Amino acid sequence: MSAAATAATTPAIGPFSAKNDEFTPFTTARHWIGGKWCDPATSRAVQDVLNPRYGKPLAQVRMGGADDVDLAAQAAARAARSWGEWPIRERAHVLYRLRELMVRNIDELAWLVSHENGKIFGEAKAEVEKGIECVEYGCSLPNLAAGNQLEVSRGVACEVAYAPLGVVAGVTPFNFPFMVPLWMLPQALVGGNAFILKPSERVPLSTLRLAEMLVEAGLPAGVFNMVQGGRDVVEAICDHPTIKAVGFVGSTKVAKLVYGRASTHGKRALCLGGAKNHLIVVPDADLELTAENVVASFTGCAGQRCMAASVLLAVGKVDHILDAVRARAAKITPGKDLGPVTTQAARDRITGYIDGAEKAGAKIVLDGRKADAVAGGYWVGPTIIDHCTPEMACAREEIFGPVISIVRVPNLDAAIEIENASPYGNASSVYTSSGDIARRVMERVEAGMCGVNIGVPVPREPFGFGGWNDSCFGHGNITGWDGYRFWTRQRKITSKWALQRDQTWMS
Q1: From 418's CA, which of 9, 48, 143, 291 has a CA 20 to 30 Å away?
Q2: Which residues make beta-bridge pairs with 384?
Q3: Which of 384, 372, 371 is nearest to 294 (CA)?
Q4: Domain 15-273+471-491 indexed as CATH 3.40.1670.10
Q5: Which homologous superfamily does the CATH classification assign to the domain defined by 277-452?
Q6: Model-level pTM?
Q7: Residue 114 contacts by C-beta under 8 Å, 6 or more apart in sequence?
Q8: Strands, E, within 52-200: which ranges?
């Protein structure tokens, strides 16, 4: 059956018209179920989608509930039966076409992400480019997923095949509205599953265009569905008996709740939570490289990423490096080099941590509390808090803003001890010119993603993304080969076609 014969009618969302930062409204976010745009079955709740740069709504989202999840699950179950029978290479061909559409429309997608999330254009474009990379990995899966076969005894062969789970779902966050769904979709779709996406109600717009592009790429109706909403939708996804696996990216508190609830219902669950990432800087670190990299790590995407630097552990005499970090961060201009945070509540929370650190005796060496690039927007400038203690809230809790806390320690062992005392385990990096120091840190830190002279050690495809401890609930990584195995199940086949003269225990 051809893709064209089963694809849904192209929806009429249309491209986003913005070509710059000028405020530009967009369409209302609705459900995408069974190849059609539709309104919630019962709920009449509507929520504004804010442009954080201006602090005013560019669109609205119609909030659904459990009834809508059930409709999506029914549509997905119908579609999954035939989609799972497609040869894996034909399923991957849809992703080839999706990639071409994303490349062709990359600037439009980047501007849409920028307007709904607040990222500056370059950061938004980098997000879309990473999404394209994830799709490219999905295109490679037919070769990687070829089943292994081995003659284990005379005339007896064992092989492994990867079968779809059926209907699966993903719940994604506000900070990377376009990229994180593409951490999940390629592996799940190529694996033969039908997928239900619950995007963040704060940033549901770029995934509207993703749905449209999947249609144009030839994905059959019902294979990809999207339900808008909040907590009610997430809980319904966890509870619905048709949905066999759930992927989640968000805060640790919610990740733990989603993992527990989904697992209670017998589902597979892989839930990524928050972080408190530590950068260890030693005296032999390269001055220019370290200053540039540390600033990029804690200010990029306004600090609203789980891989952002949160704490700088200054080992020994590194004041010359800290001075360079401050000087470089002070040159960043909010509105030009740095986007806003997403909400007024986020701004209040971030500045509250800075206020608290100052009252506790820390020194604010670079203060971003008075940043105000565009009237009405939610701005926090780069902020550096020095002379923190490990007990201070700014050094322990996830701030999720362009703020870095400096804790001074006498030696490397003390730095590693502080890092490993954190309940999180997402990322950790060391800045050094010594291979021995780098090796010692990489072997001892409690973190799933580690860097040497890299402040945002995000694994590129095919290497998987995933932390340890309270940064991840479930087994494995959400991207790469682990992701494919999460969304599929192994079928082991043992076969024999002729009687053998000798006998073994398998005869």
Answers
A1: 291
A2: 366, 404
A3: 384
A4: no
A5: Aldehyde Dehydrogenase; Chain A, domain 2 (3.40.309.10)
A6: 0.94
A7: 18, 21, 120, 121, 123, 124, 339
A8: 56-62, 149-153, 156-164, 167-171, 194-198
CA atoms of 107 and 125, how far apart (whole Å): 7
Q: In the structure encoding, which two tokens stand for residue 455, read together?
A: 């402040």
For the chain, the domains span 15-273+471-491, 277-452
Instruction: Enter the tokens of residue 259.
Output: 């993992």
Greatest alpha-carbon pair distance for the chain in Å reads 86
Catalytic one among 134, 301, 306, 394? 306
Give yes or no: 306 in active site: yes
Q: What confidence tens digit (pLDDT) does each residue in 258-317 have?
A: 999 999 999 999 999 999 999 999 999 999 999 999 999 999 999 999 999 999 999 999
Q: Cα(264)–Cα(451) distance, rounded to whole angstroms?
A: 36
Distance from C-alpha of 181 to C-alpha of 127, rounded to nearest angstrom: 11
Which tens digits make up the pLDDT trace of 306-363?
999 999 999 999 999 999 999 999 999 999 999 999 999 999 999 999 999 999 999 9
Place of tokens 């080099």: 337
Q: Give the relative orientation of helices 231-239 and 66-83 as an angle to the nearest 10 degrees.
A: 50
pLDDT confidence band for 3 (50 / 70 / 90): very low
Cα-Cα end-to-end distance for the chain: 41
| Virtual torsion, Cα 204, 210, 211, 212, nearest 10 deg | 120
Residue 17 identity: S
**3-state class of 420 per DSSP?**
helix
Closest listed residue to residue 58, CA positions, set 92, 21, 101, 32: 21
Q: What is the pLDDT of residues 133-162, one digit of tens each?
A: 999 999 999 999 887 889 888 889 999 999
Sheet strand arrangement including 149-153:
149-153, 156-164, 488-496
C-alpha span between 465 and 156 (Å, rounded): 38
- Give the separation between CA 329 and CA 327, rounded to whole angstroms: 6
Angle of the 88-104 helix axis to the 106-117 helix axis, nearest 10:
80
